[in-house]
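Hi W.,

Here's what went into the run:
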Amino acid sequence: MLTAPVLVSAQEKQPNILFIISDDHAYQALGTNEKDSPTKLPNFNKLAKEGMVFDKSYCTNSICGPSRASILTGRHSHKNGFVFNGQKPFDGSQPTYPKMLQKAGYQTALFGKWHLESNPTGFDQWEIFPGQGSYYNPDLISPKPNGKGNQTVRVPGYATDVITDKAIDWMDKRDKTKPFCLVVGHKAPHRPWCPAPRHMGKTDKLKLKMPANLHDDYANRPEFLKKNQQTVGKHMAIYSDLKVLKEQVPADIQPKIVSPGYGWEMGELNRMDADQKKAWYDHYSKRTADLVKQMKDGKLNDPKAFTEWKWRAYMKDYLETIMAVDDSIGRLMNYLDKNNLSKDTLVIYCGDQGFYLGEHGMYDKRWIMEESFRMPLIMRWPGKIAQGVRSKAIVQNIDYAPTMLQAAGALTPENKSTLQGIPMTPLFKTGQAPQDWRDAIYYCFYENPGEHNAPRHDGLRTDRYTLGHIWTSDEWLLFDNKKDPTQMKNVANDPAYATIFEGLKKRYEELRKDYKVPENAPGSKGPIPQFQASWD
Ligand code: SGN
Ligand code: CA
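Here's what came out:
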């Protein structure tokens, strides 16, 4: 275990912690690097300039609930027991960072997305979305004031704004004699990618850069990639995901629009008030008219051209939902500034995993491959974290808990013994990894059978290589990320990589041992294994 400098001595003030976590935010759309940013996000930019961006930040298991459970506990999925969405509720009796912070004198609160199918523990106050939550006029669950069970209240407004209002209101009314830890959980930019009315159409003039591998044919990589059900071309639904208004598509054009027949956005439409509905119909009737015209002109007859049309529509909605998250960051940072709290507050912004924005032809996540595995992460703490630095040290979501605890002076031997992550505090000064920094991280995905049909697999990431093992087919993936950053060539069977492959497989076995991964994880066939929370 690494040692980290003590940042907060007994005499020093414990910092507040403002932890902002969005849902499915791809690092490719973080907006902090002109080169890789498809849109301008001024508040993300400002946060990045005032803090540190972690360019090699990864998750333990690229799916919502498991990633959040790893963040809460600082442990891998098999250790916190939450291996995939919907298997069972998170065991709230286990040690978590909010509980440890409470013990260290913190006032704690959580607003927004939770997605762990349980009542949150470790938070003095909480209001959470049911399940995935909604974009428009969201429902929020909270404990009843009389302490007997929960209540669900529908709150008017756009979810990202509603949660920001709640967070600011809580900071205003909090007990100001204590340090606080506030978790702000945004629904955006999760599917079905519904923007706030004020942002609809705001990306229309943006030049979008299409990924070079949008039409990937998955040659020389495992068959499983072809079985994925998360491609923009085949699996993205025109009438729901992309919000084309079916009733405005002429009858002779409709048969030409082949689309999976889901209907999630109807849930959103049914929640909207008259103004929201008007904005929606005004905006999406323009998209519908464009599709109909292009269809009539025969411009979308080529399946590749149709995929590209879909990709553009997808990107616009996705980026427009992030514009409201940018507004939220701006409002929260303003609150800290106005109340003289910025200097004493560690701000953490992250997504809950990576996300495909058309790379390898895909949307969604789940894979150990880069766009799905890598998470956006920014940390700001004036005077303690260097400003405007991009760290290349390999970090993982299990590191956030030890980092917060270390910052709060609460990384006691007892707390530390439950954690599998390491504090990131040694990176704060320069972003450079010290000599004894970890050489590799472990990853494990379980959710198969499951939506989008990504196979169960696990593996590791070093600074240079990604190694993956697909249990179902016993196939290996090996990417040389230096030579092949877009991961188009599996070199697992390339004789030139034989020694590296063997070395990485050995390291993979060691990591599984170090993290106490059970032999049946993630398993190949049959039911997905169940694990109890344990923190030995
Ligand atoms: C929903 C989405 C999926 C997504 C999962 C998990 N479908 O089921 O596309 O992969 O959530 O996402 S939807 O039609 O209901 O939008 S996660 O971020 O919560 O893990
Ligand atoms: Ca997610």
